[in-house]
Amino acid sequence: MEVIKEGTHTYLLKQIEYRTPAYDESVVYAENESWDSVDAYMRNFCALARKDIPDMAGKLPYEVKTKRIFFRNWLKFYQQNKVDRKVRVQTCAVLEKALPPLLSHEKTALQFLGFYEQVLDLWKDKQLSARANACLTAWLKEADKASVRKKMAEIGLKVADQLGDKKSLVRYAEVHAEH
Length: 179
What we know:
Strand order of the largest sheet: 1-2
Strand content: under 5%
Distance between the termini: 36 Å
Order of helices and strands: EEHHHHHHHH
């Protein structure tokens, strides 16, 4: 992997090349997520999100002024503007692609999961909830951090309730009770 350092920003060329935002252990240490490494990841994530959600390009900049409130601003934009189904699907797809590599990075994973939960609650779309249910089920098998598993179970409980899926409700309740 080729890493370029420019001031306090680190750019991971492999991520851009393969269009897969993911943490790389050489940049982010599992137990100590430095702000610079999270910032580099978020810059790459935002660049890829702008490509994958063309309707959002230029509307949500990730800058020094907005980096700590990026997800809050993104949610606020969705709350204040009519968002068509295509953008909703693209947003969930971007988050679903970004989350699996983050599961071992507690703080950042919780931030992404929190935003994912908020957009699912905002839209209350059964098809997106069914997608989320499938993703959360798979992610639960991979996640090893208790707080991340608990957050996924909380989201899963809401999604399963909306879908009326009793089997999933039981599964998420069991995971939630563990933590």
